[in-house]
Write a structure and sequence with these properties.
Elements: H1 2-13, H2 21-25, H3 44-63, H4 86-109, H5 124-149
Helix pairs in contact: 1-4, 1-5, 3-4, 3-5
């Protein structure tokens, strides 16, 4: 079980088969966070805020029987294309990181296979895989937008 948890942690934080959110969002000029190049329907800001909302929802669902999820899809995506200010951007990145740490702590202390009582068959293992899959999908979109904006250089391998 310990091996599975270690592998889930790696999957959740990224950096094994692809960059993680920290690398994908590092050093982005603030004035480009709201750009939607080539007619794309979303900006980097909207993608990161969407990751934050969805991850928060999955964390809360996993720990709080009274949690009510936002309305899909309207409340999972911000309307504004850019954050109000740098503080808002930094706060969003911090919440994504804090919620991910809280989820990783949760999977270290709970049964990964037990059904979540307020769910309809979901388990912490399923939520772990869903958080990782969802984030990886949108992180790839962030990298594509950065490439289109000319602000991406592949991070050097840490291995």
């Amino acid at each position: 079980m310990k091996t599975l948890i270690v592998e889930l942690e790696k999957l959740l934080t990224g950096g094994t088969a692809h960059v993680g959110l920290k690398e994908a969002t590092a050093d982005i000029p603030f004035d480009l966070l709201g750009e939607r190049p080539h007619g794309l329907p979303y900006s980097i800001w909207q993608l990161v805020e969407h990751i934050r909302i969805a991850q928060w929802d999955m964390l809360e669902f996993s720990i709080d029987a009274s949690h009510k999820s936002p309305k899909w899809p309207d409340q999972y995506w911000p309307e504004e294309t850019a954050p109000e200010d740098k503080n808002m951007w930094d706060k969003t990145l911090k919440q994504v990181d804090d919620d991910l740490k809280a989820f990783i702590e949760l999977i270290q202390t709970k049964d990964l296979y037990a059904p979540i009582p307020q769910g309809d068959g979901q388990s912490l293992l399923r939520e772990s895989l869903q958080i990782a899959d969802h984030a990886a999908y949108h992180i790839a979109e962030i990298v594509v937008i950065r490439r289109l904006l000319g602000i991406w250089s592949t991070p050097k391998s840490s291995s």
